[in-house]
């Protein structure tokens, strides 16, 4: 079935592709508007693209997980664990990374942020 392309429709594929481009543009434009002046840190330096990219990753992940949740027709316990769990793991990771990384001075731009 899959190799014979019985379920593949080029129109649906193009719609998904255009939807992904639309979401990307929306996220980029809002990220650019929010971080337009860039973040000035307490030491006077600018946080830059690392901070901007990290902050933008959360809405991107939320968009992807939301889309996965919307297209899932049969929810199992694994879906319930994986979809919200991925977002929870990201928030835990960024809290730990934002605390530990400046201490070893790996990411000084996160000092005092988390």
From TrEMBL:
GO terms for biological process: endocytic recycling; phospholipid translocation; post-Golgi vesicle-mediated transport. It is found in: Membrane. Residues 2-110 form the P-type ATPase C-terminal domain. The keyword Zinc does not apply. It comes from Verticillium longisporum (Verticillium dahliae var. longisporum). Coiled coil: none annotated. One of its GO terms (molecular function) is ATPase-coupled intramembrane lipid transporter activity. This is P-type ATPase C-terminal domain-containing protein. Keywords: Magnesium, Membrane, Metal-binding, Transmembrane, Transmembrane helix. It is a multi-pass membrane protein. The chain crosses the membrane at residues 12-30, 50-71, 78-100. GO terms for cellular component: plasma membrane; trans-Golgi network. The lineage of its organism: Eukaryota, Fungi, Dikarya, Ascomycota, Pezizomycotina. The keyword Transport does not apply.
